[in-house]
Amino acid sequence: MTEDPPRAQRPIRSFVLRHGRMTTAQRRAYEAGWARFGIDFKPVPLDVDALFGRPGPRVLEIGFGMGHSLAAMAAAAPDRNFLGIEVHRPGVGKLLHLMQEQGLTNVRVLCHDAVEVLTDCIAPDSLDTLQVFFPDPWHKKRHHKRRLIQPPFTALAASRLSPGGLFHLATDWEDYAEQMLAVLSACPLLRNTAPEGGYAPRPESRPLTKFEQRGERLGHGVRDLLFERIPAAV
Q1: Known binding-site positions
Q2: Which of this chain's residues are annotated to bind S-adenosyl-L-methionine (predicted)?
Q3: What are 86-122's pLDDT values in tens digits?
Q4: Fewest beta carbons less than 10 Å away: which of 78, 95, 158, 215?
Q5: How much is the pTM?
Q6: What domains are defined for the chain?
């Protein structure tokens, strides 16, 4: 088991809370589904198998947006246990609505800061996949410090993967993709699975999202990064 990386101070966050209104359907789904599928944040390790009532491969997605992609992945892989983190309540409500519509029971949801969840709630060496799709690119140069994918976060994320686990990123911003590639390549716990150390083809397991389609319309190439967790040096 790896040791936790030093707890980083968090004066800068990678998100800004937008208090958008829930639709009636989102609010009803939130109220009906949170007691069963929601996880109230507490700074203690989660018993993931107990949360799902079974063991199974563990997939954690950070920033699932409105939940369409996460719901599609959960429907396609009912044997896998999906944890989703999203700070915006309308997105949480929408995912719970999709789960209700599709009869999905293999997803649990947290509405909290992902860095605090990873630090306090997810045990080292415990995830099979950690995925971050289309995080906020904070495209203005003066805001790059707000980007999620930085060395301290990457070290934390890698430490939560089990050996052989996958860290899967996707973005439609070229300069952010370059930063991601450089940061992940420098992490001693990660190995690039793509040929020649570049970007990976989109795995079939990642559904096309509206962000990807928007990026294609704008002429932005979408880049996937797939890095494998390697055992820590003894």
Answers
A1: 61, 86, 113, 136, 140, 172, 209-212
A2: 61, 86, 113, 136
A3: 999 999 999 999 999 999 999 999 999 999 999 999 9
A4: 78
A5: 0.88
A6: 43-123 (3.40.50.150), 128-140+163-234 (3.40.50.150)
